[in-house]
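As agreed, record copied across for absentees:
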Amino acid sequence: MPVNMEHKIYQQLIQTKLLPLYTATDLSYLPKVEEILLDNNVPLIEVTFRSEFAGEAIKQLAASGKLMVGAGTVRTLAEAKIAIENGAQFVVSPAIVPEVIEYCLEQDIPVFPGTATPRDIQSATEYGINVVKFFPADIYGGLKAINALSGPFYDVKFLPTGGINQENFVEYLDNPHVIGVGGSFILSEKVIKEDNGKKMNQILHSLVQQIN
């Protein structure tokens, strides 16, 4: 099944440019998470399968219909199925996982496979995917690598994560080959817990203000 690049997830990412990566260990903070994201016009969130609460967190965040909720760190078909059954509208993987990609394409769910090498990117394009996660961006050469890879893969856009932070994210976003950036620096449960979200709200507001 061909990839639908007009899907609202891609369009929203182009507009928002930020993909918050969130690992839930305490579900009681999810209403605050939604509030912070909506207050700052960032209606996207990637809930990672780095905790046992991933499926339930996706379900709760998707319930209101106000956020585009996706699943991250999806490494198995079982995780992809749990994510989508609980309302995930997109899936992000740390690597090329064929069964995850194929399942998502069957369900018309945007999937962002993790890539780091030309072979990875070629594998993604063979599925018709031309927006890929670039991870870990800092370890695999950052913007220099993205610029080099964009020579042969001129029709691919990158979503870099890993080593992206408040100091360098604007530089990444200024690159024409980058569709957006992801990371926990955008939204963190740990920071929310410090003062019930006040500091986190200020940080996200500052990030959004820096985007052209």
DSSP finds ten helices and nine strands in the chain. The first strand starts at residue 18 and ends at 22. The chain has a mean pLDDT of 96. The longest helix spans residues 198-209.
